[in-house]
Sequence to fold (285 residues):
Amino acid sequence: MRYSGDMPEILRYAAFTDRSEGGNPAGVVLDAHGLDDAAMQTIAAEVGYSETAFLTEATGGALAVRYFTPKTEVTFCGHATIALGVALAERRGAGPLALDTRAGRVDVLTRDGPTGVQATLTSVEPYVDPVAEADVRETLFSLGWVPADLDPDLPSRVAYAGARHLILGVLSRERLAELDYDFDRLRAIMRSRDWTTVALVHRRDATTFDTRNPAPAIGILEDPATGAAAAAFGAYLRELELIDPPAELTLHQGDDLGRPSVLHVEVPAGQDSGVRVRGGAVVIS
Fold:
């Protein structure tokens, strides 16, 4: 583990909320150029949030960013990107940012708003893949669910917008609220298939959803707000023609964890267009 110079300042933000006790906590390190991989991993473990974003260097006009969970590095993290954008805007002023992530180029636009800075990320080019029935069955068994718990109008798929997520439509909001799963068994299938989270979604109406994201593959029980999964879900709805783009979705997440979060997802027309995810972030005191 290597530090070059003093220990960097570690910021703590809650993303997709306007109060520190809501949203999804993220660590943010704005000056990580003197840190090697082991140092960033150690800091992320000490911070203890699902992800910490490290701004490592400027490369060709873009800002290089890396994301670490308490256990491992991930290619992209949506809520930590929102937190990073807000943190930079509060220090440098609002405006456009170009981020160089391990998943590819992610553009972020920050604006001052009546409740503070709002950040909008545009995902890398998304895609949607089929999922094997055997993998769905194993996931359901890990969740303690049966096929009848799934919404037939939201077919199971794997969607990507910087990270891979299994998407399962849930027929009952009550079933979603009762989530209690086998951590080790779900982690095993997720790691074998390279799924960052399982996105469990319940449709309230045409553009409003409740969602939960168990994430044992990255070492946490559940994410209270998942920007990367929200972008992937927007791409999924567009690919399966379950919405009429351009469309704006509202995702409610974290309510069942006591950390309510709201994610606004803008889905443009065009299957190869990145999906935009918007939200605010506030300092955790």
User: Anything to note?
Assistant: The chain has a mean pLDDT of 95. Helices lie at 37-47, 78-92, 133-143, 173-177, 183-193, 227-239.
